Amino acid sequence: MPVLYFHTSLRLPSTEVVLELVSLSPRPDGSQQAVGRGFTVLELFSNRPEAQAADGDRRLNLHHGSPRSLLHPLLKDTVDYSSLLKTIDGAHLEYVIKNHQALVSVMHLLPENVLISGNENIPGLATSPTGDALLRPQLLKMLPFTLNRLTISLQPSLEKFEGQLLQLINADCHNTVRPGFHITHSALIVLAYDTFN
Description:
The strands form two sheets. The chain has a five-stranded mixed sheet with strand order 4-5-7-1-6, with no helix packed on it. It has a two-stranded antiparallel ribbon with strand order 2-3. The radius of gyration is 19 Å and the shape is globular. By secondary structure, it is mainly beta. The chain contains one helix and seven strands. The relative contact order is 0.26. The two termini are 27 Å apart.
């Protein structure tokens, strides 16, 4: 069962994690083609007892289409997506959320609000013989240095971002699996650290 790590400073009841199941297939040029297989929404800090992120096993249904469909005006301020989104029959995501206190000393090295695997190469952390550098993280010795002639490229403008988003939404219409796709079994463990505790 894969283990993913996550930390956030957002402690709002409306905080949600959107997870998309994507299959990768090789292309002749060596790159990979990503095809969306479904997505789900995980409510992290909901006040509803059935959605709370307490320790324990949970199960989420996967929905057809792309998570970009959540940007549709009909879904704005919607709490219950299941009535508006088509569920993939027999497909679900099993997960467990646990606090992982060992992340406290290294969370400055991890991007906030991003799922990350302990198998990834994380600058500043020693590799682990188990392959999971975040299970028992060990900081590398810091080496001070100076950068000269540093260039920073900023993200695209809002207009360019919206244009790219529209292109991606259009591509999703052609790149998602249609009804009839079946997933046999998938499981996930998310180890989270709440920066307010």
